[in-house]
User: Fold this.
Amino acid sequence: MAFALGKRSRTYSKKRRSRKQRGGIHCKFNEYMNGLLHGTSLETFEAVVKSGKLLARKGDTKIIRGKPLNKGVFLQPLWKCNAKHTIPVKDCARPIFLVFSNVLFTIYDDYHISTANCGGMTWPPALYREENRDKPPESFKVRSYRKDQLTDYFEKEAPLVCTSDTSLTSHEIVFNEDISFDYLQEVWVCDYEGPFAQWKSRPSTKEEVAEGQEFIREKILEEFHPMAVHVHIRKILDDNGFSHIPVQVVNSLPEGPYTKSCS
Assistant:
């Protein structure tokens, strides 16, 4: 499967085998969304693939507003209006992207979307604290939306997202359950040669462990070679029963949409 990309983008995929369609599911979000994205690093990609799912994290020990930070599975929305836009290198800090179907919006119930990367915290209109009860959602710099508020999310946030210079937003979708690879549609590799800043994990120091942090994520300059990474990823997928999943090396957002699990 291939999409028309920018001049530097290259497509590499094996012929997709037919997959079981999940009947009775209506993907009503296709008007706005081309799919859902989860970024990861090469160092964690193999472990994620072997598990066959994205695992909902328990969250950090630190509690804010009654909830642990970084709890759940985090994805980004792929807005249809941003298709074909260039992916800046700053958005490749996690240079391997797992692309999931819009069907996740329908089959899961316990999730919310926020308009900033805020560690899973919730804001109005999804959550009102008593002291903010009289403030309109528009007055908050960060806004969150529940499943039953997605119509408002799409209509109110679209004017802010659908601009000529936007590709990937900082919006986060937080699911509180594991996400099965049954809904994985493609894998993308950022088409930038390193070194560039990438998120890496390291073991915590004794002091950091005492504060409840098992590992620390830091941005460091790291080498990255898209062609070699593509070959490595293709082998990992093939060796773990996912030879039907295409892999693309991209520098702009493919058009999609990624709705192949929808009837």
